[in-house]
Amino acid sequence: MFNPSAKLKVDRRDGKLAMAHFFVAFTALAIGGLAGLLQTLVRSGKFELPAGIGYYQILTVHGVVLGLVLTTFFIMGFQIAATSKTSGTLTNKQRIAGWTGFWLMTAGTVLAAVMILLNEATVLYTFYAPLQAHALYYIGLTLVIVGSWIDGAAIIMKYAEWRRKNPGQPSPLLTFMSLVNTMMWIVATIGVASTVLFQLLPWSLGFVETVNIGVSRTLFWYFGHPLVYFWLLPAYMAWYVVIPKVIGGKIFSDSLARMSFILFLLFSIPVGFHHQLMEPGIDPAWKFLQVILTFLVVIPSLMTAFSLFATFESFGRSKGATGLFGWVKKLPWGDARFTVPFIGMVAFIPAGAGGIVNASHQMNQVVHNTIWVTGHFHLTVATSVVLTFFGVSYWLIPHLTGRILTKAMNKLGIIQAVIWAIGMTFMSGAMHAAGLLGAPRRSSYSEYGGAAQAAEWIPYQVAQAIGGTILFIGIILMLYIFINLAFFAPKGEQEFPVGEAADEAEKAPMVFENWKLWLGITVVLILFAYTIPFIDLIQNAPPGAKGYKLW
Ligand code: HAS
Ligand code: CU
């Protein structure tokens, strides 16, 4: 479909709103990256933290600041820019919602961060009960969630306005995708908001003595799995819509892209049990059902892989490529906007395969609670997703600040991604290997009383520290590029690339915009997968747990 706004620049005021999000995101990268470096050094056994700072405190900073803060702020900023670009400038009301959400999220982040720094909330990013944090930490998290809803309302309002003004027309693809991700986020965060508000907060304030751990963890993972797709879908937005334009090709199919996003909305949430396969109190039949649903949610990722290969191959062939892999040579390897996310895509192949291992109940027994899982998510979120976000930054930040990505910065961007890939190969590779040997995750350095098995892990932990150090160099480079693009790069016009679909002439079926239908099915699937297990967890609960501060 013809989309007149595709030619426009993002309005300066919307640009400011998006940039505000990016400043918080990249500050988080600096702090979280440093914490990560320190962790790998501690676990190598050759370094101790100064001034009595605890390993678990640093680990909490790392997980919260990178897993929750960097991602949420970057994603909200990106989605606002993408919606403004493809559906037109936000109205004042929408922009006010955006800023209100942004400031609430920022206030909540600062509050939670202060509590972690005061060592009052060393509960890791999953904040599992019975570890008990200071009430202000939970209040901070609540503000972040509520803020993100208000921020997301800007996107929902813009979408509704577009549909009103363009009756019978499918919405612009990037707006559609931002909307799906926002709705998925809202449905998912209801779970974590419930455990924080109704269980953890009253318990940490002393209003109730004990907490039902099974219920709390189940509510957490009801949110925790869609959380990882909330990180992934913006990367998919870039892979489906931006990358084809950057390479000079076409989106393989607009309708296929929409369908894969709808499948994510349907199947992302009723799958949280794949994080709880080893937990008591949940009937195996329900675990089995949620594992089946997990394998269903793999399908839209396979569709994405197919669609990307199709885009790359048809582009290559249009440039005269022949043979099975001739198209590889035709891709624009010198362009950071392509190469950096591409490295992310390649990483997603082993990353996704590892996920399928995790989701397989029997194999989960081998890897659960080992550092294999940490290796898995450093490939998924910390490579595929984060490298794509870096690749997006290289054009989006100059687009918003009225600057350009210079040749030198472009080159540095590619070097950054190569350094990242090398560092991550060491770190994540060693984590996967050590995990298979039984090395635990969420655990500081220990020789476990000289146990022979633990001695086997140590060389891998040294390799992790080498990888972590290389990654830290990558972070410094990224921060340097960010500061350049935000403040110092030459003034100019950097394009916001929005691809056109090869099937442009065929209008995407309007059924994709039928939210009553899709949200209805989402709710039915959630109720089906969770109602009876929740009743079980409440009716047959063991005595509640008192709070512990083990740090
Ligand atoms: Fe996961 C644990 C299962 C995807 C993140 N995951 C985690 C945790 C995180 C995380 C953070 O079933 C730890 C949570 C904690 O602290 O405890 N995960 C899966 C499955 C998938 C999956 C089945 N995970 C992700 C993504 C994440 C993420 C995405 C973040 C962004 N994960 C699990 C399970 C656990 C788990 C269990 C619990 C483990 C335990 O015991 O605790 C799937 O969605 C993966 C599907 C992906 C694919 C790959 C498709 C490939 C594509 C690339 C194409 C490439 C091209 C370029 C075109 C099937 C799209 C190539 C070109 C060339 C020339 C080669
Ligand atoms: Cu999951």
UniProtKB/TrEMBL annotation:
SUPFAM superfamilies: Cytochrome c oxidase subunit I-like (SSF81442)
Membrane-spanning residues: 20-42, 54-75, 96-118, 138-160, 172-200, 220-243, 255-273, 285-309, 338-357, 377-397, 417-437, 457-483, 517-535
GO biological process, one term: aerobic respiration
PANTHER family: CYTOCHROME C OXIDASE SUBUNIT 1, CYTOCHROME C OXIDASE SUBUNIT I
Subcellular localization(s) per the UniProt record: Membrane
Domain Cytochrome oxidase subunit I profile: 16-487
Protein name: Cytochrome c oxidase subunit 1
Any one cellular-component term (Gene Ontology): membrane
Claim: Manganese is one of the keywords in the record: no
Pfam families: COX1 (PF00115)
